Amino acid sequence: MKIFIAGTDTDVGKTYITAALTAILLKKGLHVGVIKWVSTGKADSSPDIEFILEKAGLAPLGPGSKLSVACPFCFSFPASPHLASSMENRVVEPDVIIRETQRLEEACDILLIEGVGGLMVPLRADLLLIDLMAQVPCPVVLVARSGLGTINHSLLSVEALRQRRLEPLGIVLNSVGYGGCADNTHEEIVSDNASIISSLSGSRVYGPVPFGLEPTDEKVSEILTPLVTNIMETKGHESTR
After folding, report:
1. What is the per-residue pLDDT for 231?
2. 191: which of 99, 108, 176, 232 is 20 to 30 A away, CA to CA?
3. How many domains does the chain fold into?
4. Helices (H) and strands (E) in the chain, counts
5. Could you confirm whether 27 is annotated as catalytic?
6. Per annotation, catalytic residue among 14, 27, 28, 36
Protein backbone atom coordinates (compact mmCIF):
# COMPACT_ATOMS: atom_id res chain seq x y z
CA MET A 1 0.00 0.00 0.00
CA LYS A 2 1.16 3.53 -0.69
CA ILE A 3 0.10 6.89 0.76
CA PHE A 4 0.99 10.26 -0.75
CA ILE A 5 1.89 13.05 1.71
CA ALA A 6 1.04 16.22 -0.20
CA GLY A 7 1.10 19.87 0.80
CA THR A 8 -1.03 22.90 0.08
CA ASP A 9 2.21 24.86 -0.36
CA THR A 10 5.92 24.74 0.38
CA ASP A 11 7.08 24.87 4.03
CA VAL A 12 3.80 23.55 5.43
CA GLY A 13 5.49 20.62 7.20
CA LYS A 14 5.19 17.67 4.79
CA THR A 15 8.55 16.28 5.84
CA TYR A 16 7.75 16.72 9.53
CA ILE A 17 4.42 14.89 9.20
CA THR A 18 6.05 12.18 7.07
CA ALA A 19 8.68 11.67 9.79
CA ALA A 20 6.01 11.45 12.49
CA LEU A 21 3.93 8.94 10.51
CA THR A 22 7.04 6.91 9.72
CA ALA A 23 7.92 6.66 13.42
CA ILE A 24 4.40 5.62 14.42
CA LEU A 25 4.18 2.96 11.69
CA LEU A 26 7.61 1.58 12.56
CA LYS A 27 6.55 1.21 16.19
CA LYS A 28 3.73 -0.99 14.94
CA GLY A 29 6.36 -3.34 13.54
CA LEU A 30 5.67 -2.53 9.90
CA HIS A 31 8.27 -2.33 7.17
CA VAL A 32 7.94 1.29 6.04
CA GLY A 33 9.17 2.78 2.79
CA VAL A 34 9.71 6.50 2.23
CA ILE A 35 10.28 7.96 -1.22
CA LYS A 36 10.75 11.56 -2.27
CA TRP A 37 10.26 11.68 -6.03
CA VAL A 38 12.23 14.90 -6.54
CA SER A 39 14.35 16.85 -4.08
CA THR A 40 16.10 20.20 -4.51
CA GLY A 41 18.76 21.95 -2.45
CA LYS A 42 21.39 19.22 -2.42
CA ALA A 43 22.98 17.40 -5.34
CA ASP A 44 23.73 13.94 -3.97
CA SER A 45 20.94 13.28 -1.46
CA SER A 46 17.61 14.55 -0.17
CA PRO A 47 17.67 16.84 2.89
CA ASP A 48 14.07 15.80 3.55
CA ILE A 49 14.95 12.09 3.64
CA GLU A 50 17.86 12.94 5.95
CA PHE A 51 15.48 14.89 8.20
CA ILE A 52 13.11 11.92 8.38
CA LEU A 53 15.93 9.57 9.33
CA GLU A 54 17.19 11.96 11.98
CA LYS A 55 13.99 13.37 13.49
CA ALA A 56 12.06 10.12 13.57
CA GLY A 57 14.84 8.69 15.75
CA LEU A 58 15.48 5.83 13.37
CA ALA A 59 18.34 3.37 13.54
CA PRO A 60 20.87 3.47 10.68
CA LEU A 61 19.78 1.63 7.56
CA GLY A 62 21.26 -1.82 7.12
CA PRO A 63 20.47 -5.54 6.99
CA GLY A 64 17.21 -6.26 8.77
CA SER A 65 16.13 -2.62 8.79
CA LYS A 66 12.38 -2.01 8.78
CA LEU A 67 12.85 1.16 6.72
CA SER A 68 13.56 1.64 3.01
CA VAL A 69 14.18 5.07 1.50
CA ALA A 70 14.75 6.48 -1.97
CA CYS A 71 14.95 9.73 -3.91
CA PRO A 72 15.22 9.18 -7.68
CA PHE A 73 16.04 12.81 -8.58
CA CYS A 74 18.15 15.21 -6.51
CA PHE A 75 19.14 18.69 -7.71
CA SER A 76 21.45 21.17 -6.01
CA PHE A 77 19.60 24.45 -6.67
CA PRO A 78 16.85 25.09 -4.05
CA ALA A 79 13.99 25.89 -6.41
CA SER A 80 11.03 24.37 -8.19
CA PRO A 81 12.09 21.06 -9.81
CA HIS A 82 11.55 22.32 -13.35
CA LEU A 83 14.06 25.14 -12.76
CA ALA A 84 16.52 23.18 -10.61
CA SER A 85 16.70 20.38 -13.19
CA SER A 86 17.09 22.73 -16.16
CA MET A 87 20.03 24.44 -14.47
CA GLU A 88 21.79 21.07 -14.51
CA ASN A 89 20.63 20.20 -18.05
CA ARG A 90 18.74 17.22 -16.66
CA VAL A 91 15.14 16.11 -17.01
CA VAL A 92 12.83 14.53 -14.44
CA GLU A 93 11.80 11.19 -15.97
CA PRO A 94 8.35 9.97 -14.86
CA ASP A 95 9.08 6.36 -15.87
CA VAL A 96 12.05 6.25 -13.50
CA ILE A 97 9.92 7.61 -10.66
CA ILE A 98 7.09 5.15 -11.32
CA ARG A 99 9.45 2.14 -11.47
CA GLU A 100 11.19 3.11 -8.23
CA THR A 101 7.84 3.68 -6.52
CA GLN A 102 6.63 0.23 -7.58
CA ARG A 103 9.88 -1.38 -6.45
CA LEU A 104 9.69 0.15 -2.98
CA GLU A 105 5.98 -0.57 -2.59
CA GLU A 106 6.59 -4.25 -3.30
CA ALA A 107 9.42 -4.33 -0.74
CA CYS A 108 7.50 -2.89 2.24
CA ASP A 109 4.18 -2.93 4.05
CA ILE A 110 3.40 0.76 3.62
CA LEU A 111 5.11 3.24 1.32
CA LEU A 112 4.93 6.95 2.15
CA ILE A 113 5.50 9.22 -0.84
CA GLU A 114 6.45 12.74 0.15
CA GLY A 115 5.57 15.49 -2.29
CA VAL A 116 7.63 18.50 -3.27
CA GLY A 117 6.14 21.97 -2.77
CA GLY A 118 2.42 22.25 -3.47
CA LEU A 119 0.29 20.08 -5.72
CA MET A 120 0.71 22.27 -8.80
CA VAL A 121 4.48 22.53 -8.70
CA PRO A 122 5.98 21.71 -12.13
CA LEU A 123 8.39 18.79 -12.12
CA ARG A 124 9.28 19.94 -15.61
CA ALA A 125 7.71 22.43 -18.01
CA ASP A 126 5.15 19.90 -19.28
CA LEU A 127 4.39 17.95 -16.09
CA LEU A 128 2.78 19.04 -12.82
CA LEU A 129 3.32 17.03 -9.65
CA ILE A 130 -0.42 16.39 -9.30
CA ASP A 131 -0.62 14.96 -12.82
CA LEU A 132 2.14 12.46 -12.07
CA MET A 133 0.28 11.61 -8.84
CA ALA A 134 -2.73 10.74 -11.01
CA GLN A 135 -0.58 8.22 -12.88
CA VAL A 136 0.30 6.51 -9.58
CA PRO A 137 -3.07 6.81 -7.80
CA CYS A 138 -3.27 6.28 -4.06
CA PRO A 139 -4.90 7.88 -0.99
CA VAL A 140 -3.57 11.35 -0.17
CA VAL A 141 -2.79 12.93 3.19
CA LEU A 142 -2.91 16.69 2.66
CA VAL A 143 -0.76 18.82 4.98
CA ALA A 144 -1.90 22.42 5.43
CA ARG A 145 -1.14 25.37 7.67
CA SER A 146 -3.45 25.78 10.62
CA GLY A 147 -3.84 29.57 10.46
CA LEU A 148 -5.10 32.34 8.18
CA GLY A 149 -5.29 31.49 4.49
CA THR A 150 -5.55 27.77 4.98
CA ILE A 151 -9.26 27.51 4.14
CA ASN A 152 -8.68 28.73 0.58
CA HIS A 153 -5.48 26.71 0.08
CA SER A 154 -6.99 23.53 1.51
CA LEU A 155 -10.26 23.64 -0.42
CA LEU A 156 -8.52 24.46 -3.71
CA SER A 157 -6.12 21.55 -3.13
CA VAL A 158 -8.95 19.12 -2.37
CA GLU A 159 -10.81 20.23 -5.48
CA ALA A 160 -7.71 19.78 -7.64
CA LEU A 161 -7.17 16.28 -6.23
CA ARG A 162 -10.75 15.21 -6.85
CA GLN A 163 -10.67 16.53 -10.41
CA ARG A 164 -7.98 13.89 -10.97
CA ARG A 165 -9.87 11.19 -9.06
CA LEU A 166 -7.49 11.36 -6.11
CA GLU A 167 -9.22 11.22 -2.73
CA PRO A 168 -7.88 12.90 0.43
CA LEU A 169 -7.59 10.36 3.23
CA GLY A 170 -7.40 13.29 5.62
CA ILE A 171 -6.12 16.83 6.07
CA VAL A 172 -3.48 17.53 8.74
CA LEU A 173 -3.35 21.09 10.05
CA ASN A 174 0.20 21.97 11.06
CA SER A 175 0.97 25.00 13.25
CA VAL A 176 3.68 26.50 11.10
CA GLY A 177 3.67 29.83 9.30
CA TYR A 178 5.44 30.99 6.18
CA GLY A 179 9.17 30.35 6.26
CA GLY A 180 8.81 27.60 8.86
CA CYS A 181 8.14 29.92 11.81
CA ALA A 182 5.47 29.42 14.45
CA ASP A 183 1.94 30.32 13.42
CA ASN A 184 0.49 32.58 16.09
CA THR A 185 -3.02 32.71 14.64
CA HIS A 186 -5.68 33.04 17.35
CA GLU A 187 -6.84 29.62 18.56
CA GLU A 188 -10.48 30.45 17.76
CA ILE A 189 -9.52 30.93 14.11
CA VAL A 190 -7.55 27.68 14.08
CA SER A 191 -10.46 25.78 15.62
CA ASP A 192 -12.89 27.25 13.12
CA ASN A 193 -10.51 26.46 10.25
CA ALA A 194 -10.56 22.79 11.19
CA SER A 195 -14.34 22.75 11.43
CA ILE A 196 -15.13 24.63 8.23
CA ILE A 197 -12.52 22.79 6.12
CA SER A 198 -13.92 19.46 7.27
CA SER A 199 -17.49 20.57 6.61
CA LEU A 200 -16.88 22.05 3.17
CA SER A 201 -14.45 19.42 1.91
CA GLY A 202 -16.12 16.35 3.40
CA SER A 203 -12.68 15.19 4.55
CA ARG A 204 -11.58 14.43 8.09
CA VAL A 205 -9.25 17.03 9.58
CA TYR A 206 -6.53 16.14 12.08
CA GLY A 207 -4.70 18.54 14.37
CA PRO A 208 -3.53 21.18 14.70
CA VAL A 209 -0.10 19.73 15.34
CA PRO A 210 1.67 22.10 17.81
CA PHE A 211 4.76 23.99 16.68
CA GLY A 212 8.20 23.13 18.06
CA LEU A 213 7.70 19.49 19.07
CA GLU A 214 9.83 16.62 17.82
CA PRO A 215 8.01 14.31 15.35
CA THR A 216 8.29 11.51 17.92
CA ASP A 217 6.76 13.56 20.75
CA GLU A 218 3.86 11.79 22.49
CA LYS A 219 1.54 14.73 21.78
CA VAL A 220 2.23 14.51 18.05
CA SER A 221 1.70 10.75 18.13
CA GLU A 222 -1.58 11.22 19.98
CA ILE A 223 -2.84 13.65 17.33
CA LEU A 224 -1.77 11.50 14.37
CA THR A 225 -2.67 8.05 15.72
CA PRO A 226 -6.29 8.36 14.49
CA LEU A 227 -4.91 9.11 11.02
CA VAL A 228 -2.65 6.06 11.23
CA THR A 229 -5.68 4.00 12.26
CA ASN A 230 -7.45 5.32 9.16
CA ILE A 231 -4.42 4.36 7.04
CA MET A 232 -4.36 0.86 8.51
CA GLU A 233 -8.09 0.40 7.91
CA THR A 234 -7.64 1.51 4.31
CA LYS A 235 -4.75 -0.93 3.97
CA GLY A 236 -6.98 -3.70 5.31
CA HIS A 237 -9.71 -2.87 2.79
CA GLU A 238 -7.20 -2.93 -0.07
CA SER A 239 -5.80 -6.31 0.98
CA THR A 240 -9.26 -7.91 0.86
CA ARG A 241 -10.06 -6.77 -2.67
Report:
1. 93
2. 232
3. 1
4. 8, 11
5. no
6. 36
